[in-house]
Design brief:
With 124 residues, the protein is mainly beta. The chain contains no helices and 11 strands. Strands 2, 4, 5, 6, 9, 10 and 11 form a 7-stranded mixed sheet that branches. Strands 1-3-8-7 form a 4-stranded antiparallel sheet, with no helix packed on it. It starts with a strand and ends with a strand.
Length: 124
């Protein structure tokens, strides 16, 4: 059973940075593409970014492109999300997940094994 645990969230001022971490428990960690999603209060969960199994390919939502960077280290079963130039609209619970659909998808239903999430709050 896949278990993902996110950490690193917190309160930060607008313009600041945070680095989120996602640790996976499964032995097959390196086989699958990973992603970050977020869900603001009262809104649907939305795609943020994804990274291929070997870390060589990524794609981002337009709202975070050029500010956020996803990376991974398969030897450590870790995925990270570096968030810079944070804005109040980035406030949300951030989740990591495993891609179960086609590369390039942004649909929530194409991802699974969701972690419990970590809260990011950006004050303006």
């Amino acid at each position: 059973q896949v278990q993902l645990v996110e950490s690193g969230g917190g309160l930060v001022q607008a313009g600041g940075s945070l680095r989120l971490s996602c640790e996976g428990s499964e032995r097959t960690f390196s086989r699958y593409a990973r992603a970050w999603f977020r869900q603001a209060a009262g809104k649907d969960r939305e795609f943020v970014t994804a990274i291929s199994w070997n870390g060589q390919r990524t794609y981002y939502s337009d709202s975070v492109k050029d500010r956020f960077t996803i990376s991974r280290d398969n030897a450590k079963n870790m995925v990270w999300l570096q968030m810079n130039s944070l804005k109040s609209e980035d406030t949300a619970v951030y989740y990591c997940a495993v891609l179960q659909g086609t590369w390039g998808t942004r649909e929530v239903s194409d991802f699974g094994s969701w972690g419990q999430g970590t809260q990011v709050t950006v004050s303006s």
